[in-house]
Amino acid sequence: MPGAVTRALRRIGPRLVIFHAIVGEAGASLRGRRMQAALSAFGIATGIAAVVLLVSIVSGIHRYALENIGSAGGNVIQVGTMSDRSTKDPRGFPVTLRASDVDAVLAGTDFYERASAENFANGLVRTPQRSAQGATMRGMTGDGFSVLNLNIARGRLLLDSEYANGSRVAVLGADLAQALFAQEPALGQTILFGDWPFVVVGVLDWVGDPEGGLRSFQDEIVYVPFRACAAAFRGNDIAGTLRLQLKDPSAGEAAVAATKAVLDRERRRRGETSGDFRLTNTVEQMRLFTEILTAIKVLVGLVGGIGLFVGAVGVANVLLVSVRERTQEIGVRRAIGATRRAVFLGFLIEALAITLAGGLVGITIAFALTKIAVFIPQVPPGARPHISIVTAVTAVALLALVGIVAGVGPARRAARVFPAEALRAE
After folding, report:
1. pTM of the complete model
2. Is residue 73 a part of any domain in this protein?
């Protein structure tokens, strides 16, 4: 075994020396043509910066849209109401949603795993030390946290008895808890929403990513029992939204039709003749939106690829000029023992060095521009450009490919130079 290792080192050692010499000669050549190399690298930097920045903008919009669409929870049919601007029956009652509609839908269909009714209130929430303007209270029936895929970080979720009795207890979103209590413990404290006191029994885990700049409005909500919100602010059991979680996401269309039939039956029973129900399949929304943005990303990549192609042509042009200018040098190297492979590798390394250096500068520029977006108030925090690891790795791989494509032609031309003819060249 030691003998095999020694033989392997003897084979590898000279190759490393030759490779080091090739890299050194490539570096010396680039230093001798700094301006040409810098201009070629600038073209590559511009192209890759455009590609990475445009893809990061689309990615930011994608994350923001999916976060908002997905706020209804995963695999969910969301039900709301829409009123008629005019009606043939001016005495007709407008359509409403009730908490009891959840039980009717679950009993009348077999598409859903769980469901929740919600109502809302907006106002000032405060503690003796701090307050938050324009806060939202979300009243929920049982299973609401499961449907919305919300997880507890500290304390507990609401109990069945608290849902049934309409107890004035609350679970806070992570952002609101931080705003109201900072580093103080929130559990057991009393908050005032309007003039109504609620005891904090839990704090949720973050839905958004505060460190990554991705905010979620669900982190800023007070969650209470449906009946508590109704008693304090609405005075009835009318719901603003129903959320119905599908057992099978592919059964969305059939579930929407069956749910609409059940709700129409309930509205007729209540004598509601004005308006209609609005059912939204969030699964289908997310799928369609993802397909659209994926197509936009591909289009952006193709448009940006034009810039990279132009940069690659510039690199190839610089190397072809270099081959003509260094014909005698190449002939001397060939005459003293340099192989065609060594000459080929030297020019290929030059092409890779130009493209990768320009590409890294371009990625750095794109990254800096994404950070500038933080200071643009019109851009929502969650929609700010985001350069993912996948985007960066893909960009580097694309740069390597561009470098190889740009360098192969000039490198092959240099490798075909005959020493005798090169030495006779003027």
Report:
1. 0.61
2. no
